[in-house]
Amino acid sequence: MKIVNLDGYTTNPGDLSWKEIEKLGEYTVYERTSPDRIVERAKGAQILMVNKTVITKEILDALSPELKYIGLQSTGYNVVDCDYARQLGITVSNIPSYSTNAVAQLVFAFILEITNKVSMHSESVKNGDWCSCPDFCYWNAPLSELAGKTIGIIGFGAIGSKVAAIAEAFDMNVLAYAPHPKDKGTLKRINFTPLDQLLTESDIITCHCPLTDKTNRMINENAISSMKKTAIFINTSRGPVVDENALANALNSERIAAAGLDVLEFEPAHSSNPLLTAKNCYITPHIAWAAKETRERLIKILTENLKAFLNGYPQNVVN
After folding, report:
1. Helix H or strand E encompassing 71
2. How far is CA 61 from the centre of its chain?
3. Using CA of residue 241, residue 145, residue 289, residue 300, what is the dihedral sign?
4. Under a CB-based contact definition with an 8 Å cutoff, are residues 284 and 102 in contact?
5. CA pair distance 202, 195, nearest whole angstrom
6. Active-site residue among 238, 244, 295, 297?
7. Assign residue 191 a region: left if phi > 0, alpha if psi is -120 to 50, beta otherwise?
8. Model confidence, pTM
9. Alpha-carbon distance 239 to 286, whole Å?
10. Annotated catalytic residue: which of 254, 267, 270, 293?
């Protein structure tokens, strides 16, 4: 059985092992694959693994009838034409809930960086400012506590609920918006609200929703105009959820206080992206999922998905 991974580098740049997948067939891993080489590399494969490589209807036609299964190295599955794959009898499985803790951790890394200004003060100390200070302490910008603040969570799946639990540990109040009713579980300081109320009342707003027609550019000029001037906006979901020009304008005009972004509409980032030079905008290169433990979990589920398919009981099927 021929197994081809078209973009294995971000999942495993060399610090992890593919050995469990290698046991299942003739396994070839490419670090990354340009669109013009997809068919050439994947031709004849029964099993295909991708992360961000886009698999269109035309590519599926070129790879059938040999191709039987596509294993995504991601939770999102919009890179594959899943409906057409189903028509061709090709099963597509994703990796759900593998990065919940890691993404929630980055959300609070952004929040704490913005509220405690750790890097600003560390740089100041290294520049000698503390050595020459007449007092035992100083601060170069206002600092703020999270206790008593309100965090608004847009989307309340596994990651959203984890963020809510961490927020409660900080004694924060939690507002959440979800298009369908959700169980509060053991959370005690949470209220589900309409989106417009969440935008108006939250001190911190964090997105944890999938990219759909309804969420595309949901955070636009109108939504941002509803936020507090002191609001902090966080996005670790999908880049196109945000109208990037509107957010950059809001930051530069001090319409909102700050933003923390792990995703952009186009990745790698375009040098012309206005957020790269926007005021108080903290950007990381899509690393929320990249902790070693998180990627180990991804490869384990990727392998389990493939084994389940080969045993006739496919799991985590998205088509």
Report:
1. strand 69-72
2. 30
3. negative
4. no
5. 11
6. 238
7. beta
8. 0.93
9. 10
10. 267
Q: What are the pLDDT digits (tens) for 188-234? A: 889 999 999 999 999 999 999 988 899 999 999 999 999 999 999 99
Question: Residue 159 in contact with residue 100, Cβ under 8 Å?
Answer: yes
pLDDT tens sequence across 47-87: 999 999 999 999 999 999 999 999 999 998 989 999 999 99
DSSP strands (E only) in 185-287: 190-192, 204-207, 232-235, 258-261, 281-283
Q: Which listed residue (121, 208, 286, 295) is catalytic? A: 286
Report residue 249: phi and psi, to 5°: -60, -40
* C-beta atoms surrounding 214 within 10 Å: 9
Alpha-helical segments (H) within 156-266: 158-169, 195-201, 221-225, 244-252
Instruction: Order across the sheet with 232-235: list the strands.
Output: 190-192, 173-177, 150-154, 204-207, 232-235, 258-261, 281-283
Interhelix angle 100-116/292-310, rounded to 10 degrees, is 160
As a whole number of angstroms, the distance between CA 29 and CA 180 comes to 40
Known catalytic residue: 238? yes
What tokens were used for 10?
């971000």
189 given a catalytic annotation: no
